Amino acid sequence: MRKTGALIASQLLVCALMSGAGEPGAGEAPVFSAAERSIIATLAPPALPPPPPDRTNRFAGNPLAAELGKKLFFDARFSGPLLEGDNDGGPATLGKKGQTGRVACAGCHIPAAGFQDNRTLGYSISLAAGWGRRHAPSLYDVGQQKLLMWDGRRDTFHSQIFEALESPVGFAFAGNLPPDARHVSKVLNDSKCLVRLYELDPRS
Ligand code: HEC
């Protein structure tokens, strides 16, 4: 990942040098003119199609499931203690080392930052309970994707989220809790929203 990043960065530098004067200086954000913005806008489709149907998920499209998912996205109750000393309570961290209940999905996929992690930009990896090995990608339009994660190792959303929940450096779930999903089930069972979902679906 880092090698690829360095390669892309060096290619961008060559492009910048070849394109000559008028480019923003080091550390300056590029400013696009109205004309450039309208050219960029032609590259986007006018409207996105709905996400492809997911036959592996019987709750897909259920508004209660969507409501539950949204709640869980911001729910930090699953998380164990922050492990890494870089968690010093500063703005680039989710709290201080040892604190529990600090990590939610939204801690790394930050809504105000396009659902990516802009707390730990300099490292290109994500800090939650500890340092992960990869940067948290944006979740914009993620419902359109057929393969998930940087290397495409997941092909369903419901299988993907347990990876974050059970990651020792993500939610640190395994740090202070039984090494199975009992804690997750308990929190879910306490959720009125989930209970309503079960009531709606007699197969559950
Ligand atoms: C510790 C930071 C962190 C937390 C917390 C976290 N994620 Fe992620 N997420 C990542 C990283 C890093 C990746 C990419 C990992 C990889 O490719 O190996 C990722 C990938 C994803 C992807 C795939 C995106 C794509 O474009 O392929 C989805 C979807 C996702 N996360 C959803 C969630 C949800 C839902 C939660 C909460 C249950 C969550 N994440 C919690 C860091 C985090």
How would you describe this structure to a colleague?
The protein has 204 residues and is an all-alpha fold. It has 8 helices and no strands. The chain is globular. It starts with a helix and ends with a helix. Bound molecules: heme C. Residues 73, 103, 105, 107-109, 126, 128, 132, 134-137, 139, 142, 145, 148-151, 157, 160-161, 164-165, 170-171 line the site of heme C.
Give a topology summary.
Layout: H1 2-19, H2 34-41, H3 63-73, H4 105-108, H5 157-166, H6 173-176, H7 182-189, H8 192-200
Bound molecules: heme C.
Order of helices and strands: HHHHHHHH
pLDDT averaged over residues: 78
Number of strands: 0
**What would CATH call the homologous superfamily of the domain at 63-200?**
Cytochrome c-like domain
Q: DSSP strand (E) fraction?
A: under 5%
What is the CATH level 1 assignment of the domain at 63-200? Mainly Alpha
- What is the subunit arrangement here? single chain
Unreliable stretches, pLDDT < 50, 5 or more residues? 1-22
What percentage of residues falls in helices of 4 or more residues? 25-40%
What about the largest sheet? Answer: none
CATH topology type of the domain at 63-200: Cytochrome Bc1 Complex, Chain D, domain 2
Assign the structural class, choosing from mainly alpha, mainly beta, alpha/beta, alpha+beta, or little secondary structure.
mainly alpha
Q: Which word captures the global form?
A: globular
Architecture of the domain at 63-200, according to CATH?
A: Orthogonal Bundle
End-to-end distance: 41 Å
Bound molecules: heme C
Count of runs of 4 or more consecutive helical residues? 8
Rg (CA only): 20 Å
